Amino acid sequence: xxxxxxxxxxxxxxxxxxxxxxxxxxxxxxxxxxxxxxxxxxxxxxxxxxxxxxxxxxxxxxxxxxxxxxxxxxxxxxxxxxxxxxxxxxxxxxxxxxxxxxxxxxxxxxxxxxxxxxxxxxxxxxxxxxxxxxxxxxxxxxxxxxxxxxxxxxxxxxxxxxxxx
Length: 165
Fold this sequence. Notes:
There is one protein chain. With 165 residues, the chain is α/β, with parallel strands linked by helices. The chain contains 7 helices and 4 strands, in the order βαβααβαβααα. It is globular, with a radius of gyration of 14 Å.
């Protein structure tokens, strides 16, 4: 199993959106049996809360099933368990690294948009942040960024793990 953990600040907007989008892409590719996909927060602020109504609404609009989820905080055990830990912005990456023990010695932590357009370029890129719609209110832009990142991540993993169906 290839284990993926999407991470953002509160685990109710971006990471839950990415979890649902990536799961949808994996199912469309008939690769579900190869993946375990989850999401988590770097903070404790939203623990136990369901996905944000803006995330639910945007996924519904795009006809992507929402994965049932309650916010939880990333732990050090998550760092050892998951193969890929995908943060949404620079602050997430710093906090994920701190939770992981102060460094990413296994090279598992990535910024979501590092995978943007990977399926075209076959290279990771300098990644800008996925804006937090909790602050911007722009779930459309967040969805576009998450979709681009998830498509690239799936292409990257297919290449790296030689998963070509």
